[in-house]
Amino acid sequence: MSAPFYDYVRGRTDQVPPGYSDNGMRAYRHLVYLGASQMVEAHFPELREQLGEDAWRDLMAAFVRDSRWSSPYYGDMKDAFLEFIQRESTRED
């Protein structure tokens, strides 16, 4: 798979890569977001409740788009999320 494919499904670009359908790519992007959201929530269930739905969606979109998560395994996401939160919190300081 190519960088344009990954950039699209992670929300880094809205340009559908050549050779892929708009509907298929939107579905795949949604599945990646949904998988990330479910895995993070499984480890941090109270976080979603504390943030509220709008802030949760924004956080998950930023995580999928901007994190360094590169493992093909959703199980590795907890560590990537913690690193993302730590990096983002120090960026604001």
From TrEMBL:
* Domain Putative DNA-binding span(s) in chain numbering: 5-85
Q: Name one GO molecular function term.
A: DNA binding
Kindly give the Pfam families that the UniProt entry links to this protein: DUF2063
Taxonomically, which superkingdom?
Answer: Bacteria
Provide the alphabetized UniProt keywords.
DNA-binding
Which InterPro entries does the annotation name? DUF2063, DUF2063_N_sf
Q: Which named protein is this? A: DNA-binding domain-containing protein
Q: Which organism is it from?
A: Comamonas koreensis
